[in-house]
Specification:
The chain is mostly helical. The chain has one domain (14-365). The chain has helices at 14-30, 50-73, 75-110, 115-119, 129-137, 147-166, 170-187, 203-217, 231-252, 254-257, 262-268, 278-294, 308-315, 317-336, 342-370, 376-391. Helix 2 (50-73) runs parallel beside helix 6, helix 3 (75-110) runs parallel beside helix 14 (317-336) and helix 14 (317-336) packs antiparallel against helix 15 (342-370). It is globular. The two termini are 40 Å apart.
């Protein structure tokens, strides 16, 4: 079978880093309830939110990273590299889950607040701690704010098969993803969580955005880009975004929502996040289309200093996400145990974003220190050693 190797350029697209950074910041703010600063996040202006962007970019990045390996070194090697990444994600999930369990238990005991177990979806921790921990290890926990990482682990674990198919039949693979999405919504397929309920992000539905991102990196949308350059798709897209904004505001403010017919309001409220409603998918696709069309890869704004914190946080996405989950938990507790005033909300949010940026900057700096140094101060001694060896009549092997 012939493998079609049309791949997106392997050079890092800074736009991905920028919007992944925005997604990470938004996820952190969204995880702190009753925080006025969270009103600036993506989810408040339309149907889709930060999780949609996070999963799409994860699929896009995975395709860019692992498709060349699978093409050049074979399916087995490529699959092992993907599984290695999935294991890293799982390890991060386990560490966060353990921190959650220990910290929440300590806070509940210290402040005599057993209700906190229910608030963070680990109500059975006191009565059945072994079962709670065991099901958490099996990705069956509904611990608050860990849902996106839980979904990411499963999607990466299944990605070797998806990538193998994308490299051979990209169109058929994308069609299969759509078919699975439709079937999951029609027949209510999902994965169970413990002690009851299902995953907050239904993986049978959310895989659509992950595969769509990988398919776009594979060049799927590029073959149809010329048909989208006319002004009509852009105008229709902007009109849909405006409609999504109106419907979202209708759901946020009851008095405004009462101005619309009940049947129209009920179609979009509440927003079906668990099973990734079609209008939510369309909203994200429109945003991605308009961003790609309006912001080129060489847009000068990507070098603006004000955007660098976001870009750096996007480059260190996994670490920033994990730290963000912990900080959102800390921020939630800080507001619960304090006055929760407007200055407190702003202070918690700004401090948390600053810490995320500092963590990303440190990790970026640390990774640079691990690279072989190739500056003049390193090369000069090497040349002097080589000259002495040649004068002595020594030979270099090979």
């Amino acid at each position: 079978m012939n493998i079609k190797a049309h791949l997106a350029p392997n050079a890092r697209d800074v736009r991905l880093d920028l919007f992944l950074g925005i997604a990470n910041w938004s996820l952190f703010l969204d995880h702190i309830p009753h925080d006025i600063v969270s009103w600036i996040t993506i989810r408040n202006f339309g149907f889709s939110g930060a999780a949609d962007a996070f999963i799409f970019i994860a699929g896009y990045s995975a395709s860019i990273a692992y498709a060349p390996i699978m093409l050049e070194r074979g399916t087995v090697v490529g699959a092992t590299r993907v599984f290695k990444r999935a294991w890293q994600l799982y390890a991060a999930y386990i560490v966060l889950f353990a921190i959650y369990i220990v910290t929440i238990g300590d806070v509940a005991a210290r402040y005599a607040a057993p209700d906190i177990f229910y608030e963070f979806n680990i109500a059975g921790l006191v009565d059945q701690p072994i079962r709670i921990i065991g099901h958490g290890l099996l990705l069956q926990s509904r611990a608050l704010n860990l849902d996106a990482l839980q979904l990411y682990v499963l999607l990466m674990a299944c990605f070797p098969l998806v990538l193998w198919m994308l490299l051979r039949k990209p169109g058929l693979t994308m069609a299969g993803s759509v078919a699975l999405y439709v079937a999951a919504r029609q027949f209510e397929w999902s994965l169970s969580s413990y002690p009851d309920g299902v995953w907050l992000f239904n993986p049978f539905c959310w895989q659509l955005l992950f595969v769509f991102g990988a398919w776009c990196a594979r060049g799927g949308i590029g073959q149809r880009w010329s048909a989208l350059k006319s002004p009509i798709p852009a105008v229709l897209g902007i009109a849909y975004l405006a409609f999504a904004l109106v419907m979202t505001m209708a759901g946020r403010f009851p008095e405004f929502g009462n101005m619309f017919p009940g049947w129209l309001f009920d179609l979009f409220n509440p927003n079906d996040r668990t099973n990734l409603a079609p209008y939510r998918v369309l909203h994200f696709v429109v945003i991605a289309f308009l961003v790609t069309r309006l912001l080129s890869k060489d847009w000068r704004g990507l070098r603006w200093p004000v955007l660098q914190p976001l870009i750096i946080c996007g480059q260190q996405s996994l670490s920033v996400f994990c730290v963000g989950v912990f900080l959102s938990f800390a921020g939630r507790l800080a507001l619960m145990t304090s006055s929760g005033s407007l200055p407190a909300q702003i202070s918690v949010s700004v401090l948390g974003l600053a810490i995320l940026t500092l963590v990303a900057c440190y990790i970026s700096w640390s990774k640079r220190q691990d690279r072989p140094f190739s500056g003049p101060a390193f090369r000069k001694p090497s040349l002097e050693v080589a000259d002495r060896a040649l004068l002595a009549g020594d030979r270099y092997p090979g």
